């Protein structure tokens, strides 16, 4: 039997520098070899730690990861409930976490929308509360999952402890076999112990390496003492050497794999196979095969170390990038924001900077909390001012609400009016005023708009129906005016004498016929041109025809109720009167500068003639103004 000290965990001989055959002097004088050996040991230790860490992992079949992002909140909760009811904890954990992540984002957006709606309707942010049955169901299912998970891991811990006890018993059986070996049966009994060792499940990670080293130590002891059946031992050694060389070759291939994480994970699998599935090799081969395996391990480890060293350097660079974004957020000037559009512009700027901040990537963990705090503080200051503005905006919204209600009352009162001209102008103004009024609380927006639109549509539908009837009448008027034009043209062509009274009668008949369609108003121009032809073919004074045409024009505007044109005409006439008076005064002043010249002088006669022309024009302009004032009642 082994003494008490032998029961303690023993370092595997293949891992021990004592097995290398190097003396202390050689190690001291050959520093590069020492550094290389140290690097190799570090690499191997890291692999062993990872294998120990994975020793508690339970084999399971992963559930296929669905595209949960396309599911609604209800569908997410339904899928979560199905997983928790039917799935194994170890198989569904990743799926549950994915659903949790997506659900929280989508519910967060819903909560944000409800909060904005609440604030837009005049609510106070401190009073905001929102409950949704789907969230309650979601929380209940998650609670069931946590209970199920806790029970599973409690049972798992007990199972790991039991497995450890079984392996320790197998080690004792192996030690007993070595100390009480019988040549005929010892090899078969050893193989039984090996089979049982492999069959035992996972053990606590903290005990994994020491337990394995102790077991491996005694396995080597068994082979070293197996002198009764060298053929069997040599056969095992040969098989184990072949299998270990395969692992060595694969480990050497991993050195050239670009994805360092993939290489490192597969290297862990190779080491686990080396330790748990393949027995020892002959003593003369142990050092050589182990050196190759550990050297490949070191190179994979170094590749991974350099990769993450470079990654950490990039993380350092991200510090300044993220701080620059924080500075940009702090620099956004909101002091001049006075309107909703101003704030919307600033909100878009902040959102763009937020996205940039998150897209930069990671920073060293030691700096993460500090940078995150700066970022949150910068955005918090912005949000405080933004919320203050929109709180004030709510008051304006309610003022706008009252203004729109008044417009609705006016529109409803006019919707059945038959005073088409007056009502139409008022309705158009109401519509223009509505557009000028700003936002109202969202709660009332659709309802108000429907009431307003219904009243306006009701009126204008009636107006268009009335206009359609009026258009038929106007087309008939157009045809009659064309006939009258043809009649006048025939008299001009026949050289029939047309007196001033005839012209006035034509104008009266023309006016009495009424309005033509709006798009055919150019017929008025044709009528005036015909009147000009009458003047050219007769002895009627141009001033007389000028007044007839003007009266016709004014009456046309009056029929159309085009008061804007009438006002413009009046301003134009007054301007022409002032200009004509100034011209007359200037010419009279010019005569005053001429002394000792008789009235028969050609220069004087020319000026006097110009004065007479301007006076005649002045009389016409004044006559036009008087007529216009009479028609307007002024």
TrEMBL record:
Q: Where does the record place a coiled coil?
A: 154-184, 471-498, 570-631
Biological source species: Lutibacter oceani
Give me the ranges of the annotated region Disordered: 1-41
Give the matching InterPro entries: DUF349
Which residues lie in Basic and acidic residues bias regions? 1-16
What ranges does the record list as Polar residues composition bias? 17-41
Record keywords: Coiled coil
Question: What high-level taxonomic lineage is stated for the organism?
Answer: Bacteria, Pseudomonadati, Bacteroidota, Flavobacteriia, Flavobacteriales
Residues annotated as transmembrane: none
What's this protein's name?
Uncharacterized protein DUF349
